Each structure stands twice: as C-alpha cells, then as structure tokens.
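Page 47, continued from p. 46.
Same chain as before, 73 aa.
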Amino acid sequence: MLLTNIPRYARNSADVTTEARRVAAVAATCGSSATAPLLPYMTTANTARDMDRVREALGAEFLVRGTRHDFAC
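Result:
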C-alpha cells in the first residue's frame, strides 16, 4: 500500500470507498502500534507549540521543514 500526503480526489463512489478503506488501514496500524498511547497528544496545536519552542531555542525567526509526512506511528 502506498502511503502519501498527496490528496486523492474521488471520481466516483467506488473511489470514496477505496479511500475510506485505505485511511481505515492507516488508522488501524497507528492505533495498534507501540506508540499508540501517544496519539491523543499528537495534535496540531501541540506540534506547532513544540516547533515554535525549537525555533526559539535555535534563535531562528522561522523554521523550514519538509512537506512529506510518513505514516510512522
């Protein structure tokens, strides 16, 4: 199964079903991983706060980061 952060666009109801199954498989993998107990704390707000603290610690005006998100749960 290819995991990517490139949005998939449904062309028909079969595409919606296929994407729903793919996303359910990713969620199941994350939910059963060794790091699953951390999931409630991996929020957008927490991540933004943490990155801002790293930026401050580095004395940087901003951080540059990649756009690829691997589903490493």
